[in-house]
Specification:
Blueprint: E1 2-4, H1 9-18, E2 23-27, H2 36-39, E3 48-49, H3 65-71, E4 85-88, E5 91-92, E6 95-98, H4 107-122, H5 129-133, H6 136-143, H7 148-172, H8 174-177, H9 179-197, H10 199-204, H11 210-221, H12 237-259
Parallel strand pairs: 2-6
Antiparallel strand pairs: 1-2, 3-5, 4-6
Helix pairs in contact: 1-4, 4-9, 6-12, 7-11, 7-12, 9-11
């Protein structure tokens, strides 16, 4: 299931700077969430496994089944919204997994995704947004007037946006010493820019729902793109500094205004 991935010299440098102990593996098949049986195979290639668990009281009563399972005692890796690259600190040393779905992706884009994973690992943040919101996830659930699946998507997006406030300075700093990675970061942002600028109209016309819009806007934060209201309020030092409390307050104000 897991084959060691050879890194370019540029990626070796990023790993050395941010997550020097991280191991990188190609996965034989695609996945959204690895079953405990498969996840435990990592025990053959790492020193130790340290499954994360979260208190049940952090979860709303109607939390998606996958989230409840992830928070419980089962050892799982990967959740909806993780994308093509998954990193985890549930292993010692930490691990970066490349899903099979990346086959055929442009090499510069894959290099950026791996570099991004190393930078995020260097922040020593939780694997999942539940570890970010903690008991505040119930407050987010009350603030977001959507179903449990869409609330999950909004929570994941808000966490991704908060991470982006920390990582984009690193990405921008690659201009001189790692220009190919900087170009890939900018190119990915250019591909998002038009869609982001059209978000208010797309939501108003019913072409994009609010959860999808939040996911797109928060993904754009890492690329330092200009965001339309109400998402521009997330691109602030206040969000970077006050983290989940700010995100919950943003959700409350946003859904109050949508209800008017």
């Amino acid at each position: 299931m897991f084959d060691a991935h050879d890194l370019s010299s540029s990626l070796e440098g990023v790993r050395d700077d941010h997550a020097p102990e991280a191991l990188v593996f190609d996965c034989e098949r695609d996945f959204e969430t690895l079953s405990p049986e498969v996840a435990e195979e990592l025990g053959l290639v790492v020193d130790a496994l340290e499954p994360a668990t979260y208190p049940a009281e952090w979860l709303p009563e109607d939390a998606p089944t996958l989230l409840a399972r992830y928070a419980g005692s089962e050892f799982t890796i990967g959740m909806p919204g993780d994308g093509s690259i998954v990193w985890t600190r549930q292993a010692e040393p930490p691990v970066v997994l490349i899903k099979a779905r990346v086959e055929g992706a442009p090499e510069p884009f894959l290099e950026f995704l791996l570099a991004e994973a190393f930078v995020e690992l260097g922040l020593e943040i939780p694997d999942h947004f539940l570890g970010f919101f903690e008991e505040g996830y119930r407050d987010l659930d009350r603030a977001v007037d959507l179903g449990p699946g869409d609330t999950y998507q909004v929570g994941a997006a808000l966490y991704d946006g908060w991470i982006g406030l920390h990582t984009r300075e690193v990405f921008a700093g690659w201009e001189d010493d790692r220009p190919a990675l900087a170009d890939a970061w900018r190119d990915a942002g250019d591909r998002l820019e038009g869609r982001v600028s059209e978000l208010p109209r797309a939501v108003a016309r019913g072409e994009t729902d609010f959860a999808d819009a939040t996911e797109l806007a928060c993904a754009a934060i890492k690329h330092d793109l200009e965001l339309p209201a109400p998402f521009d309020a997330l691109d602030t030092e206040a969000y970077r500094d006050h983290a989940p409390e700010y995100a919950i307050r943003w959700a409350e104000k946003t859904f109050d205004s949508l209800a008017e």
